[in-house]
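Quick one, tokens below. Sequence please?
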């Protein structure tokens, strides 16, 4: 059984991840200093967008607070291997329009494959090619 990581360890990881410029702005809007995360994509989101993510269901976006929730190693691995820059680059490459709603964006097949690939990378497996 996986054991939750000690708070000082997760705090140190988040301090490093949140020092990256792209992680200092919500993945889905322009709010600064997001304190929530979509573990499914390894991205940082603001409290307003976290509510929308929660409404998508945990099978689409599993949301945690960076500061208030405990974290398991597998969840933290997704944050380390994900990041807002990586997902933004993926969305651009896939031709997603910049104004697409959170609901429409995360219900796309390409994002389902992105989620699956992030899980594979964290498990040490090779990701699938995404057309």
């Amino acid at each position: 059984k996986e054991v939750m990581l000690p708070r000082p360890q997760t705090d140190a990881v988040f301090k490093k991840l949140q020092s990256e410029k792209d992680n200092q702005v919500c993945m889905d809007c322009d709010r600064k200093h997001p304190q929530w995360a979509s573990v499914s994509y390894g991205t940082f989101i603001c409290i307003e967008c976290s509510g929308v993510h929660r409404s998508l269901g945990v099978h689409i976006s599993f949301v945690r607070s960076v500061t208030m929730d405990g974290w398991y190693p597998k969840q933290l691995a997704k944050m380390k291997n994900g990041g807002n820059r990586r997902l933004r680059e993926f969305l651009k490459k896939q031709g997603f329009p910049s104004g697409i709603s959170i609901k429409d964006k995360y219900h796309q097949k390409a994002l389902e494959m992105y989620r699956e690939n992030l899980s594979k990378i964290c498990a040490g497996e090779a990701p699938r090619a995404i057309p």
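The chain has six helices and three strands. The beta strands are 36-38, 43-45, 63-65.
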